[in-house]
UniProtKB/TrEMBL annotation:
The keyword Cytoplasm does not apply. SUPFAM superfamilies: MFS general substrate transporter (SSF103473). PANTHER family: MAJOR FACILITATOR SUPERFAMILY (MFS) PROFILE DOMAIN-CONTAINING PROTEIN, PTHR48021. It comes from Dendroctonus ponderosae. It comes from the Eukaryota. This is Major facilitator superfamily (MFS) profile domain-containing protein. It is found in: Membrane. The keyword Transmembrane applies.
Length: 493
């Protein structure tokens, strides 16, 4: 535990960390609004709306569903360098500019390429935000809060997606784009209210600012009261800096050929597969799928309800994660995802719903497929969707965290691109129920793989998590529920 000369209550110590992460997450809310736009754009631009002058063919629609995911990896590859160069907070402020530009482009768009270019901007900006977003949460929070605060990023993405779903239900998509263009400006102002992370400030030899930042984050207290933790952070950064100064470009490259990078990287890639092969394409085509299945509600209202349940699941995850841990919650969630896809596939098969042609639509409405697909979204957001982002902030060593996070996010969004871009082709090849059964199989495979590969990191310090992959002591599968601030030694962060 951090030793204070004047007692600071737990509430006072934790509150600024929570506030800082919430404000940081405002940039992820913006990103969420961009992720919700394809769901609104696809039905509006698919050619069925006679009042819409701008329309796209099936190929163009598939690019709307996947373009953002295709461009995110480019931003992710730049993400680590940007975060390390200008800081986590400034990087998050900087990405708000292309977000606003993209929404303005949507509003004024008169040609299909302008829509796709706007989506490419949102994807690239979202990719750049990945490393500073994850690193900020990990570096300002104590172990007992880290899992919940890191997972809260998914909560704000969900809120942004839901905001676009609701806006698309009540406003024309151009009006929604104009509203969304203002939100990044608000985020930029809010980010001025929180400090930069003490880890980054120490790495730039800005010691006085780092002390003040840590004091702010540990209960708006004095720098003397956080001196012990500050010295631990300083020591860990100095050790890493000394090691870096002795490295050549060859030895730096070698860092990414060691087990402490490769093993976490492969684990995170696996979690992206379980998260995106199912949730991503179903969310992008939600309005079209609900129309096809003839659900009892308006397809737009059903999409809003689905987004609301996703948001509830994300909030629930942040609350119960510290009690259940990541492993058990992942097994429960993936089991739910698999079951919901099996139910949806069975319904489609029994009602002869195989393709997206209008003649294939269900003859009668039913709550079954709507509840099943909403259940799939709920279980996905319960932990599956956010798991790779949580792990990124915990299991990479400080020497490689920024770049490794960017690389992991890049691979993740490439997986998301493949999941979305291939959806229509997979439906044409194996039918809609066949695709849903495939997604169910992915979830089952994820359960089996994570049982053997996923260590329990909940409540463990960054040092312990990093040592697990660095040849040190191994993590057990026990959840540490009553852990305060552990010593993050030179082997950790």
């Amino acid at each position: 535990m951090v030793e204070f000369t004047r007692k600071v209550s737990t509430f006072q110590r934790f509150l600024p960390q929570i506030i800082a992460v919430i404000i940081k997450n405002s940039s992820l809310f913006v990103y969420g609004t961009t992720m919700g736009m394809p769901t609104i754009l696809i039905p509006a631009l698919s050619g069925n709306n006679q009042d819409e002058s701008l329309s796209m063919d099936e190929t163009g629609i598939s690019w709307i569903a996947s373009m953002s995911n295709l461009c995110v990896p480019l931003g992710c590859l730049l993400s680590g360098q940007v975060a390390q160069k200008i800081g986590r907070k400034r990087a998050l402020q900087a990405v708000n500019v292309p977000f606003s530009v993209a929404f303005a482009l949507f509003y004024f768009a008169s040609k299909p390429w302008q829509i796709l270019f706007g989506l490419s901007l949102t994807g690239t900006a979202g990719g750049i935000a990945e490393s500073p977003g994850v690193s900020y949460s990990a570096e300002v929070s104590e172990p007992i809060l880290r899992g919940g605060l890191t997972s809260s990023g998914t909560l704000f993405i969900s809120m942004g997606i839901l905001f676009s779903f609701i806006g698309g239900t009540f406003f024309h998509w151009r009006t929604l784009a104009l509203i969304n263009a203002v939100i990044p400006l608000v985020s930029t102002v809010l980010l001025m209210l929180i400090p930069e992370t003490p880890y980054w400030l120490v790495s730039k030899n800005r010691m006085e600012e780092a002390q003040k930042s840590l004091a702010w984050l540990r209960g708006w207290t004095s720098t003397e009261q956080v001196e012990k933790e500050f010295q631990e952070i300083r020591k860990s950064i100095e050790v890493s800096a000394q090691e870096d100064s002795n490295r050549t470009w060859r030895s730096n490259l070698q860092l990414y050929m060691e087990g402490r990078f490769i093993k976490p990287f492969l684990l995170i890639a696996l979690t992206f597969v379980t998260a995106y092969f199912g949730l991503t394409p179903v969310t992008a085509y939600a309005v079209e799928i609900f129309n096809l299945l003839q659900v009892p509600l308006s397809s737009y209202y059903a999409t809003v309800l689905m987004g609301s349940l996703n948001l509830i699941a994300t909030i629930l995850c942040a609350i119960i994660l510290r009690f259940f841990g990541k492993r058990l919650l992942a097994f429960i969630a993936l089991s739910g995802v698999s079951l919901c896809f099996i139910i949806t596939a069975s319904y489609c098969f029994l009602n002869d719903i195989y393709f997206f042609s209008s003649s294939a639509a269900a003859s009668t409405s039913s709550w079954i497929p709507m509840v099943a697909l909403m259940g799939m979204g709920f279980f996905s957001y319960l932990v599956v969707f956010g798991l790779p982002w949580i792990l990124m902030g915990e299991i990479y060593h400080n020497e490689i965290r920024d770049t490794a996070t960017g690389l992991s996010a890049a691979i993740g969004y490439l997986i998301g691109f493949l999941a979305s871009k291939t959806f229509q082709q997979m439906v044409s090849a194996v039918t809609l129920p066949g695709v849903f059964l495939f997604y169910s199989g992915v979830a089952v495979g994820g359960i089996l793989a994570l049982y053997f590969l996923l260590p329990e990191t909940e409540g463990k310090s960054l040092a312990e998590c990093c040592q697990h992959y660095s040849g040190g002591s191994k993590l057990d599968n026990r959840v540490c529920r009553n852990r305060g601030t552990d010593k993050e030694n030179e082997h950790g962060v």
